[in-house]
Design brief:
Number of strands: 10
Radius of gyration: 23 Å
Strand content: 35-45%
Number of domains: 1
Shape: elongated
CATH class: Alpha Beta
CATH architecture: Super Roll
Distance between the termini: 38 Å
CATH topology: Bactericidal permeability-increasing protein, domain 1
Order of helices and strands: HHEHEEEEEEHHEHEE
Number of helices: 6
């Protein structure tokens, strides 16, 4: 009986390389256990992590923003400060807001706060903000009636300022090995240190 030894050896070698690469990639992607992240760090399977600092840099690139209320005033939103909310699997964004315009005697500083969940967009390999929740728009020096009026614009302002904002974009090389073994990004977990992105099988 004849055996195709070179072909068999090549297949075994390719399989060994893929297995070793996947194991190495999985280990490299795991965050160091920190407060609130030990459970995620012990979860088996390949993962990709994004630090809180990376998220902050990404969102800062979109700001400042100006949101006009025609004929009344305009709101200028400064760079949000992100706060991770592992208990809700969401992120809070609080930003300084400046209100000025014909309806006001002078400019007023306040704060604007929203929170959002995260989703993965396969078309451009991005992590995006979605499921926005307007929390509050506060201006200590404005009359309560004006603040109430501004808060009616809060949900729309939240949508305009943060909906589908790209918080991180994975590079093709970040997903190269996952593609080879038939995986794609799946669940996104917010931890005290950043994000942990799990991988799931690609749909057939």
């Amino acid at each position: 009986m004849r055996h195709n030894t070179p072909a068999l050896s090549h297949k075994l070698w390719v399989a060994a390389v893929l297995c070793a690469g996947l194991l190495g990639w999985t280990h490299a992607a795991q965050p160091e256990p920190q407060d609130g992240t030990e459970a995620e760090a012990q979860t088996p399977g390949p993962r990709y992590t994004v630090s809180a600092a990376q998220l902050q840099r990404s969102v800062a690139a979109r700001f400042p923003l100006r949101y006009p209320v025609p004929g009344v005033l305009s709101l200028d939103l400064q760079v949000p400060q992100l706060r991770l909310l592992p208990e809700d699997n969401r992120i809070s964004a609080e930003m300084v807001a400046n209100a000025a315009g014909p309806a006001l005697n002078r400019s007023h500083n306040g704060t604007f706060e929203i929170s959002f969940a995260l989703r993965y967009e396969a078309s451009d390999r991005s992590i995006r903000a979605h499921q926005l929740r307007f929390k509050r728009l506060q201006f200590p020096t404005l009359q309560p009636g004006v603040v109430d009026m501004l808060n009616t614009y809060g949900p729309a302002l939240a949508q305009q300022s943060m909906l589908e904002v790209v918080l991180h974009q994975l590079r093709p090389q970040d997903l190269a090995l996952a593609d080879v073994v038939g995986l794609q990004p799946g669940n996104i977990t917010v931890t005290d240190a950043g994000l942990v992105i799990g991988f799931v099988p690609k749909p057939l």
